[in-house]
Amino acid sequence: MKGLRLQLAVFYILLSLPALLLIERAVFGWKFENMLRQLADGRVEALLQHEAVSIDEAMAAGAREEELKLRLQHLVLRLERPRESLGTSAAFVLLELTPHPFEARLRTASGERIAADTPRQDAPDWLHRAWSMPVPDRAGREPWQLDVDLAVPTPWRLSLEAVSFEWRLAVAYLVIFLLGSAWFLRWRVLGRVSRMAEAAGAWARGDFSVALADRNSDELGRLAQALDRMAADVQALVGTRARLASLEERQRLARDLHDTVKQKAFALSLQLSAARDSASETARQQRLQEAQGLMAEIQHELAELLQDMRGEPSDALAEVDLVPALSSRLDDFTRRSGLVGEAALPESVEVPADTADAVLRVYDEALSNVWRHAAARHVRVQLAPLPEGWALSVEDDGRGLGAASRDGMGMNNMRERSRAIGARFEVHGGAGGGTRLLLVFPEGISRP
User: Fold this and answer.
1) Domain shared by 225 and 349, yes or no
2) Per residue in 180-225, pLDDT tens?
3) Percent of all residues in the chain with a pLDDT value above 90, rounded to a whole number
4) For 58, which of 63, 113, 358, 396 could close a Cys bridge (C-beta 3.0–4.6 Å)?
5) 7 inside domain
6) How many domains are contained in the chain?
7) Looking at the domain assignment, is residue 305 inside a domain?
8) Rounded-to-integer distance, Cα 31 and Cα 93, Å
């Protein structure tokens, strides 16, 4: 079983087997009750009346006792095949409960008795039904009576008997299934997700000595292997940063890692923790899909950083439309954080690529601060025109920004990026509490 989806499918198929067994028993019990109602509606009496006439004719013709026994055995066989003899399909119900449910015999008032040789089983607590039909007396003989008895165990009693193989199998299966379920969820799903969350937390703290080393080929195994590769890439990038001779380059790289990889590693850690704690399989799969998306974004950011460090050229003067990027990042943020987002954006605002990159880095850091520090429920994003350019504001309804937070690394990075593109960066208290971050940057090419 290569894939986690296949494993879960087999898991839940096995889970359904006891339920199917109970449903089958219930349906069988309903058919048994329906069969009893059919046998009580007069069709058995009609068959016995016809058989009694036939027996009388045979007796009048001088039939011997052995021939009468054969007739009785033939009658039993016909009753055990009631589709033809009684016009009902209940034969499988009777024969599944006992191989020979019917017994037939002829008797007189004086005690003379002729019975069919049928190896029928019986027990005092079985269900019993009896029918009697007088044999017509057209030859002046002593009157005979044709008797037919039915004896079968009830379906539920048969299921609960100690000798019932199905019941023993069901009990044994349930015990084994409960133990197997605990093992499967603990070691195949929850344990592995928990190790991913712990590793992601360590990587977010800068400890890359933790490796998942999951060699399974299912979805979780592939995710773990990709996370290990990502951790190795991040570790290599951090090592490269340590070897940079230029202080300015080291600071710039630190800003990039803080504003991209670290923020997404933090979000990745939250998604994996949520997946570990999810109560339903659907919610867990959604969280894992979000984690895979974050992992892809981290790898993309790392590739761009490595490209920049190698000095590979980029088209910094190309025009970029800011609005789709702002909108999609807000959608990702609200989906992952659970906060309510509101956006007031124009249709299109084009700026140079280096300006767009700085604006988006400041925007990402502002949203990350709302998620990590503000304890907010709502966030509002607005991009509005000004005489000197455009004003981008991010406002939340959280607990506000403390004095210590104003001088943190994230705030300093936003100020540095703003200065690099000639923008103005301001932090204010929100209208209803919380914090409002304002970035005023030079005007690009816009379309209304």
Assistant:
1) no
2) 777 777 777 777 788 888 888 888 888 888 888 888 877 778 888 8
3) 14
4) 63
5) no
6) 3
7) yes
8) 7
Residue 312 above 50 pLDDT? yes
Give yes or no: residues 153 and 184 share one domain: no
Query: Which residues have CB under 8 Å from 84's CB, separation 6+?
Result: 78
CA–CA gap between residue 359 and residue 149 (Å, rounded): 92
Q: Do 92 and 61 have their domain in common? A: yes
Burial of 418 from C-beta contacts in 10 A (0-12 / 13-18 / 19+): buried
Does residue 243 sit in the same domain as residue 125?
A: no
Range of the domain at 76: 18-160
Residues 279, 349: one domain? no
Give Cα 244 distance to the centre of its chain. Answer: 48
Residue pLDDT, tens place only, 255-308: 666 666 666 677 677 778 877 877 677 877 877 877 787 787 777 777 777 776
Q: Which segments of 81-217 does DSSP mark as H helices, in order?
A: 82-85, 91-97, 155-160, 165-183, 191-204
State the Cα–Cα distance between residues 105 and 100, nearest whole angstrom: 15
- pLDDT, tens digit, 9 for 90 and up, residues 5-59: 666 667 667 766 666 766 777 777 777 788 778 778 888 888 888 888 888 888 8
Do 152 and 186 reside in the same domain of the chain?
A: no
- The full 3-state SS of 178-209, as one line of letters, equals HHHHHHHHHHHHHHHHHHHHHHHHHHHCCCCC
Question: Is position 430 within any domain?
Answer: yes
CA–CA gap between residue 146 and residue 51 (Å, rounded): 9
Residue for token pair 């007796």: 59
Task: For CA atoms 310, 312, 316, 319, give the dihedral sign.
Answer: negative
CATH number of the domain that 417 lies in?
3.30.565.10
> Which tokens sit at 133?
């039909």
Q: Are residues 188 and 287 in the same domain?
A: yes
Same domain, 201 and 129: no
pLDDT at 249: 62
E-assigned strand segments in 353-406:
378-386, 389-396
Rounded to whole angstroms, what are the CA distances from 260 to 90, 303, 412, 424? 72, 12, 15, 22
CB 189 within 8 A of CB 220: yes
